Amino acid sequence: MLRFPVERGHILELARATGEADADFERTAADPAVPLVAPLTFLRSSARFDRSNRLRPHPGEPWVGSGRTATGTPDVQRRGTGLLAEQRFDYHRPVLAGDVLFAESRSGDSWTKQGRAGGRMVFSELITDYRDEKGELVATAVRVTVEAAHVPSREA
What we know:
- It is a single chain.
- Strands 1-3-4-5-2 form a 5-stranded antiparallel sheet, with no helix packed on it.
- The chain is elongated, with a radius of gyration of 19 Å.
- By secondary structure, it is of the alpha+beta class.
- It is built from 3 helices and 5 strands.
């Protein structure tokens, strides 16, 4: 189970990067007595706490984006046929600065479709539940990835 501390500074970084940090947000973030609500996509940043995440840099090892090309790891270089098709967050309460969340993932549904250019496409869900220190469900994230049978040709 992944432990994910929600810190004011991290919330502010994401809000600034996505243009959500207007003057009111900046004032709220500066006052620790005022609850600070995380932006809706903040839960994706939990990946940086996951040591097994292939997108997280590891000293001395190649990683996605570590070289001149966008594919620095062998598993990404092998085919280049996968992508994120959908990301959804279902909130049961707001995520607040000071929360410590625990993330646990499980496989969801899987289905196939026939594509025009890439052949057979396999869609897979990954469902992640985020619980607080009391064990109460805070949010559920659903990611849908798609893997094509082969790289489509440019003519298709």
